[in-house]
Structures are given as structure tokens and as C-alpha cells.
Amino acid sequence: MVSHKSVITFGMVAIPIAMFTATQDNDIHFNQLHKEDNSRIRYKKTCAHCGKELASEDIVKGFEYDRDKYVVVTDEEIEKVKTEKEKSIQILHFAQLNQISPVYYEKTYQAAPEAGGEKAFELLRSALMAEQKIAIGKTVIGTKDTLMAIIAREDGMLISTMFYADEIKELQKQYKKTEVSEPELNMAKLLINSMDTPFDPSKYQDEYQEKLRALIETKISGKEVVAAEADNAVKVIDLMEALKQSVEKVQKDKEPA
Q: Is the pTM of this model over 0.85?
């Protein structure tokens, strides 16, 4: 399902695109129930003045410009003040992907060309891949001037919305960097290289969600929930010894049976 339609512009080039959400929520969600009878808890939207329960069609947007004084603004009026330039994704400049901290990325979309934009879309994707660059752009989504990163991939392009610098918190807790010895650093590098494998997202699963589903099935069938077996406690030992043992374990696990 298309989440948003726009046009990528840079120079005199315009590329009509459709944006699709790139992720989905597979988590188990629990409802809140009344403890006495297990009935669902409901939340109602009511008017603070008359107490009447409201449906979605009864609700409008309002901005409080003075205490308890509001001006009503409609979605149509918000769209009216947007220029064509603001409706498009304007590429501001290009940058190296590794120059941007992951903390700036917010939500990611998959982008696909609309009719007539296929060649320009592929040209931009190929050029970004060849130069190992990403595009930084801006557009207005809803009521916000949204910063975006356009990232080329082998099979298409991704567009990630980004936070502005003033939306990123400073590191909450500073730490004092301590010295590490060369042997410790070399052993840490050895451990990292011994665990170096290509990233394959299909290999990872949310194992705890699987445990929750099993718990729910157990409860539905009326069986008793059994406590999980205790894990081996992590022992705090000498750093160098811990690195050595870690390397040995990885190498042993890689040996053919």
C-alpha cells in the first residue's frame, strides 16, 4: 500500500515516486482488561466543555493562540499553503553514507518510480551506487519540513526520514576513556575478525516473541506455565583471559563436526 507520493528533484531533473512503508510490526500486543471480570478497557474521547462522547468526524484541529482560545485549521487549508516545491523532495546535497550517525535516521520507506520516471530513477540509483554516496533532501509531510536521506541499494532505493540536530539529545552519561594495551587490542581485533560474516537478516528472529506465543498457547490450553531454565551466569574475569576464551570458543564452534 502506497504511504506517500512525491517527486524527487535535483537540478532540472524531476522523478515521480511512490513511497511504501519498509517495515511492519509483528510483536504480540496485550489488551488492558478489568481485573474482576476480564472485560476490555475502553478509552473514550469526550468534550471537556459538554462531556459529550465524540466520533472522529466530530473532531477538528485547533491551535491554542491564547489561554483557552483556539483557531481551527483544516487539512485542506494546510495543503493550500504548500508550494509545489515544498510538496517535492528537493535534493540539497550529496554525502558519504558513513558520515551520518544512525541516531539521525527515523523511519524508512521503500521508493519506486511512478510512470514516466523509471529511467531517471534508475540513473540516480546507479550514480549513487557508483559514487558510494547518498542524497540529503527535504520535503513537507503533514505539517513538518522533513529532512530525508535517499539511499541507493542494489535492488532499488530507500528513503529515510531524519531528525534535525536540535532533536538529538547529547550523550546523557560521559565516560572517561581508559588506556588499552596493544596485546588486548590485537586480541579484540582477532575476536572481531573471527566472528566476521556477511549480514543475512533472514538468520535473525525475535526468539522472545516465540516464547511469548508459546506461553499464550500454554495458557489457552489450561496448562501450567513452567519457568525457563536458568542461563549460565556471566562471570567477571580478567579481560585478556575473557578475550582468549571467546576466540577459542568461536574457533571451536567453526570446526566441522
A: no
